[in-house]
Amino acid sequence: MQGRVKRVAVIDVRQSLEFEEWRLPGTFNAPYLIPFENILRRASGYFLAIKGGLKERNPRFVDAVDAVVADKRQAIILLDLRGGDLSIEPKKAGSSGTYDRGDSNSLRAAYELIQCGYTDVRYVPGGLTVCIEEGISQYESERYGALLAILPDGVRKSLLFSNLLPDPSLAPGFIVQFIALAIAAYLNV
Questions:
Q1: Which of 29, 123, 138, 144 is the most buried (most CB within 10 A)?
Q2: pTM
Q3: Would you say residue 94 lies in a domain?
């Protein structure tokens, strides 16, 4: 008698723009956050040089997962860039300016899927960064593959892990920040 092989769905919860830039082979995209529907709110993020603009929770996130996963008992592994960590205490409210390793979109997405009846939901502590750094998987990129292939390893990882791959939506933010810095330098502020 042979044991049944349980299928696993690996779902990348980063925004679609980031998933289209690069991803792990065989993963599916179900963004947990999406750009604001309100164009003015989204645009304010562009001026702050936030890739894809300001974001809000995707109201169709669970539907996107449902489209990929046939059975709510199927194993699901959620990925985002940094992965979060349930083994540490989250930062207290009001502690700004410090990345909270106890929080991530993949953890928030896991919680929501469990609330919706999914029974085998997992996440990767350290996220995509760990998957690549520890050799668990390679990335793939149709758009930037040729560029990334010629870069030294450290530069390539910096671009991937910092969301610094070229994106036209970031131009207004960089221009505004450059002008503000130039004015401040001119006025010796």
A1: 123
A2: 0.79
A3: yes
